[in-house]
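worker-03 picked up job from queue 'complexes'. Input manifest follows; two sequence lines, order preserved.
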Amino acid sequence: MTVPSQPIPAALREPSQRVSPRAQLMWGLTAALEAVVLLVVLTVAGPVTEWAPVPWWAVVLVALVAAAYVCVVPKWRYRVHRWEVTGTAVYTQTGWWARERRIAPMSRIQTVDHAEGAVARLFGLATVTVTTASAAGALEIAGLERDRALALVDELTLMAETLPGDAT
Amino acid sequence: MTEDPAPEVAGGWQRLDPRMLLVYPVKELVRFLPVLLGVFVAGTASGGGWWQVAGVGVPVALGLLRYVTTSYRIAQGRIELRRGLLNRHVLSTPVDRVRTVDITAPPVHRLLGLTSVRIGTGTASSDEDDRLDLDGLPAERARSLRAELLLTGPDAGTTADLEPPAVLDLDPAWVRYAPLTSSGLVLAAGVLGLASQALESLGGIDIDTRQISDGSSGWSWWLVVPLGLLAIGVVVTLLSMGGYVVTNWGFRLTHTGPARGGAWHLRRGLLTTRETTLDDERLRGVVVAEPIGLRLAGAARASAIVTGLDRGQTGSAVLVPPAPRAVVERVAGSVLRTGLPMTAPLTGHGPRARTRRYTRALGPAAALVAAAVLLALLADLPLWLPVLASAALPVAAVLAADRAAALGHVLVDGHFVVRSGSLDRRREALELDGVIGWNLRATWFQRRAGLTSLVATTAGGRQAVAAIDVPDTVAVGVAAAATPDLLAPFLVTGE
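worker-03 finished. Artifact:
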């Protein structure tokens, strides 16, 4: 490791790789399902239980907000979500309103997870999660094509294995 | 081991100290106490004496069984603990996985010269059964075991009589800081709660408020309320001081072994003594916390950022209990092996970070005032409500100013140092080798203001050290200077 010098102002570029465009559909469908469940609960809860009467205009308001969310947020997410793996580090950018960039050195990687949620499988997508010894430092790349994700897991596992140290 | 009073079982398995035969039955009796009370009440009612005998006999027998069925051994680089009669349970862990060895001695153990040894492997499991506890070893055996397991210095076992100079010895006068911490208040509140419940169940004290109101008792509200508050204040102060003394009595911090690669030893406790060891290898940094009460009194406390502590074991990373600030800085300096992280001037986060502190503090306060005004107008509530609510504004402003003044960071002498907070101000110093990665988080508002929260992740302490609302380019610059190899490929070039 080189000796740290005094900080000079600098800027990070975005990670080079984008996730699959189908991720927008995945996020959109997930959001739509959640919105439907919420709306059903709101419309049914009022008449059935009588103790929580939700006025109709509130339901319409919630529906409008949910529709806007379903239309806008997946596209926004897709524009933000990026990732990059080099020989020495993993770099991800996630979020939409709050954008989070995470960088972890390859030598500190502890586990590499591959997960496919129910909705993700509909679109042939997968999520790769890279964890480090810090609970605050997991890097998640959602919405990768399945084959791409599997290849990435293999690549990361191999690289993490060849580097020494106990990663703490 | 030249003299080992513990009887040996076949295969190198050793039992715990026979004196535990006195402790286990008592512990089991205490555990069965509720059942025992029931049995005794039922027994007296039915007139039979045998039930009582069985009620006492079963726990005692269980206690004896626990001693007989528990054994441990250290062989072939593994430490193994075997226990249970019907459900045999063998815990086994490689010696080089052992991260901590904590020695505690509750009062009964101390009377008998025994200790309980907890061997920590940094496991995330919180299951009681997965703990490697050797409950009941003679004190000197526990110390030599610790030296054996942690390999702290070549002869850590023999230097026991030649104790190294203390880096910190508790000054009993520091007990004056106890009431100023929130933990002291929580403790006092807990005790008061218990006491009031006990009083309640014993019939309670009956105070006739009408007599006070109409003045017939000779007491007036003007006397009762201040006196009551004073009494509560005195009780809380005494209780928190008591808590401080019980936890921290005899607090002593020492360092053994070579300057690097040795270990810190911490001993404290009035009734139950606790000894904790922190390897230099696992030490990643120091946190100096100044909650508002301590800060106003010129005091602070410090804890260590240590990797490999078991979950829920964070308490054992304490380095300095509430003590004068100068003392805390000196100890933090010697633990970090450089005083600079604690004394170096910090780089502020600039006017935009200051503005954000004000908007974030004043926004909710203004909303509160607006809500109070609306309520007063619409719901016809008394007018003093909005007046009272508007008191939130100056409080929020003061808080914001203090929070803005706290913000700062610096890279100094191989440490990433960050300060933030007002009511709970913290100055954290993290060794750069302990930085596992960086998170740079910015909400839409932060991006508009050109700010980023720079978080260094680490495997110890709270898992992260965060500098909030740092100007974008400064944040990246700091991360790049701290870990040049990591950031270099991702920096914007050609500027």
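worker-03 released lock.
Chain A touches chain B at residues 1-2, 4-13, 15, 84, 86, 88-89, 91, 95, 97-105, 108, 132-137, 139, 167-168 (CB under 8 Å).
The mean pLDDT of chain A is 87.
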